[in-house]
Amino acid sequence: MQPSFFKSSHKKKHPHSHSTIPHSGNPRFLSVLTATAVVIILFLFYSRRTLVSNNPCSDDTPPLTAAQAIIAAEFDTLATPLVAILHYATAREVPQQSKGEIRLTFEVLQSLAPCNFLVFGIGHDSLMWDSFNPHGTTLFLEEDPKWTFSALKRFPILRAHTVLYPTRLSDANSLLSSYKKDCRDGILKGNRQCHLALSELPDEVYGRDWDVIMIDAPRGYFAAAPGRMAVIYSAAVMARGRKRSGVTHVFLHDVDREIERKYAKEFLCMKYRVGGIKRLWHFVIPPAVNVNDTTHGFC
């Protein structure tokens, strides 16, 4: 039997929405489901304890249901992987990526953990990603403050920030044609001239070399949406500017869309693509010899 948390959903759902996947009321069904989840996750992970995010919760977010409150309270007494088992064995919501896509990132995290893992986007899969990096630093960046607050209410162990994106999907082509003129120095923090540079992220984002970066946000499926142009560009800058030894693994989701593919080819570089499955591409990017030289592009 395949655990429910490996099923995919094409669009991100609000943390309080209900999935259409039915649950059986049969006790034997629930026992088998829970046991399967326990075997899989305990086989793959080991217990750990991390720091609880200090991000405040908004008063206007929907209150937790009784079941959600139970899960949230368990972080005080159980290690994170055990809470993850409890959550995904009983939740109706499922992660956005397919089983194959999840496993691709999981295998990299298993080879590197504990590591620094930066995730653009927060949703039903956030507790899973955090559990995949035991004793490491996993940080989520989300555009919608209500989603951030809701996730932190349900999973107070997570570390997350709400960020603003200066771009619009409708400007993707013009931004791509002008970046060599506006983004010459390859600097992110405080860079107002380069519209693709994420210049106002939390300091802890700029202060670390990120071993793995997952790009699964912000929204990029309508003209007024921020699109993922700035995230893809900024992830490439972070990888090129890496100071520690090693490389940066970048995972880009939704590559079935034109802009994701176009920006990946320009900034993440197909010569650094090492694999992929379905709508997920995997890049391994080395640090640049001259990080500030982007006059001739990134590839």
Structural class: alpha/beta
Alpha-carbon Rg, integer: 19 Å
List low-pLDDT spans: 1-11, 13-24, 38-58
Number of distinct helices: 10
Give the overall pLDDT as a whole number. Answer: 82
- Reading the helices and strands in chain order gives HHHHEHEHEHHEHEHEE
Rounded to the nearest angstrom, the distance between the terminal CA atoms is 44 Å
- State the shape: globular
Summarize the structure.
The chain is α/β, with parallel strands linked by helices.
Note the topology.
Layout: H1 27-44, H2 66-74, H3 80-90, H4 99-112, E1 116-120, H5 126-131, E2 137-142, H6 145-154, E3 160-162, H7 172-182, H8 203-206, E4 212-215, H9 229-240, E5 248-253, H10 258-268, E6 273-277, E7 280-285
Parallel strand pairs: 1-2, 1-4, 2-3, 4-5
Antiparallel strand pairs: 5-7, 6-7
Structural summary, described in words:
The protein has ten helices and seven strands. The chain is of the alpha/beta class and 299 residues long. Helix 1 runs antiparallel to helix 3 and helix 9 runs parallel beside helix 10 (258-268). It has a seven-stranded mixed beta sheet, sandwiched between helices.
Features:
alpha/beta, 299 residues, 7 strands
